[in-house]
Amino acid sequence: MKVIIVGGVAGGATAAARLRRLDETAEIVVFERSGYVSYANCGLPYYIGGVITDKEELTLQTPESFWQRFRVDMRVRHEVTAIHPAEKTVDVRNLATGETFTESYDKLVLSPGARPTQPALPGVGIDRLFTLRTVEDTLKIREFIEQHHPRSAVLAGGGFIGVELMENLRELGIDVTVVQRPRQLLNPLDADMAAFLHAKLRQKGVRLHLGCTVEGFAANGDRVNVLLKDEAPLTADMVVLAIGVTPDTGLAKAAGLELGIKGSILVNDRMETSAPDIYAVGDAVQVKHFVTGQDTLLSLAGPANKQGRIAADNICGGDSRYPGSQGSSVIKVFDMTIATTGVNEKTAKQAGIDCDKVYLSPMSHAGYYPGGKVMTLKVVFEKGTYRLLGAQIVGYEGVDKRIDVLATAIHAGLSALQLKDLDLAYAPPYSSAKDPVNMAGFMIENLSHGLVEQFFPEDVDALPRDGSVTLLDVRTPGEYADGHAEGFVNLPVDDLRERLREVPVGKPVYVICQSGLRSYIACRILAQQCMDGEDQDRHLIDMPHAAFAAMPPERVADFNAKYGHLGLHWMQVGAQNADGLCYYDIVRGGMDKGVGLADLCEKMGLTLADAVAAGDSANDVAMLKAAGLGCCMANGTPDAKAAADRIIGDVREDGLADLIDELWFDGPRAEPSGRDLGSPWDKIESAGGQ
Questions:
Q1: Class of domain 2-114+247-315
Q2: Among 108, 190, 335, 553, which residue's CB has the most CB atoms within a 10 Å radius?
Q3: Amino acid 423: pLDDT
Q4: Is 316 a catalytic residue?
């Protein structure tokens, strides 16, 4: 079997090595247009910046080392100019000698990659204007910097390579300006998370011209003018085009292969093209997004290498399948790390997915261990199903670890609720006992249980400032003084319980803090203290059976005045305590323990005649009447005793235990002892009801 591979970077190199491991007899020939194979595109900016000092480190293999280890014929500076699927041949030009020849194949793998997008703008071909895609591009830029010592640079575009190059140029002391039409850098981020990146770049002296349209370039002596629409030109010593890449699929198109998005090569999950015995991998192919199932293009090294392996497996008789691309990525930006996986909120909505999100800003490791830094996570999930859709993290340490956990969870099909259950490693230098990923799960669980409702930064400006809602900032006074949202009043969370009367009753309450933790605590305090009247109404309407209240008797009338329309029924349980509080069961109209007992019997396939009930207070009366045998404790209130079929021993004398022993274990009859133990209800004659 003879296999020809077009392209010797990433997917092509992986396919060649895998083929040899599976088949020692195959003839494997790789044609690479550039002078290098198996090089790391992501490492190129770091050679320009001097972080990688030896250019030899940019290439994982050479043609010589590939031959020595794998017996793969790597031919660099060879360009495939045509594919003939019917004849199963390719035309090749030796770029060093100009020689042309034809090579036959049994199987063909296309790994042409993508080329830098070259806009049809005036001045694109002038000196001092560069692109960055190959090792040759890298050497050209570094040579220019070493020879001309530019003081300024303009980058047109802000994708991964552009941001990495921006960092490295800035570390060399070059003034860097970024200009692009989109209003944010790094498209996999949502705008709210990209804001962290923008702030870091501005802090490092990078100038951002976002939302600007480049209309062309012009030489200006030893400098370059970047011409902008409706704005003054930008002038710099060098310009790098980093506005994206385009699938390099001219060969595939000319050969009649079926094409997809932006001219990309269509493949199935076995990496097979529309032509027999021709496979395609890497940046040139259209794939399915693992999360949305939609067609997409993703120019990332990880997927390209996996696809190369899959193509090789199938060429050698296997049945490997590509599940789709998830888009996991991580990037260093000075001392900051930014990572993504899955889809962002914007993409999810474009795909028609009804999604929700949580934000959290935990420490990278235990707060008591020195050196911890804050990271901010945004986790996106589908409403209702809680299917994990994606995540974005911005921080300083531990970001890569968390994004990999979340990427794994998405691939494994875990729900967002299951994040709380992950058993993740903990030691103070590395994490907290509640890992940030677990904490995201806790937050989502709280939402699912209705313990809290969210609003988001984009909602703040639209909140009413007319007094119809209460706006609380629960940070410390010092934090509040340093800056706060308009209309929000300061009430620190640690003071909230003592200052509840400052929160108006009956108005929706919106609470903010720094990261969400303190505002969540405040919301739980308010919800349980019945401060949010609107929420309380809803809680009482939706309650399945009963609520329990402790309050002075005089407050009952106030409560009924406000919530009487709900048709609630009150029953006092016991006597007033030393603090002046009485205890009450609050049930919906038509609900009591008798109804509950009837419902339970129905679910168990029993009749009420089969039921035995025991109680001692007014809230037990309906149950005692409904049961086939109703037993009141000797300590019971008069109305409870009147409703019962018989009286049994005092609760303080194990009266209920005696009844159970009598009925089910043939024990003696459970009779009251006749001892006067005093009333547990103090001086109350009847627990009564309202």
A1: alpha beta
A2: 108
A3: 96
A4: no
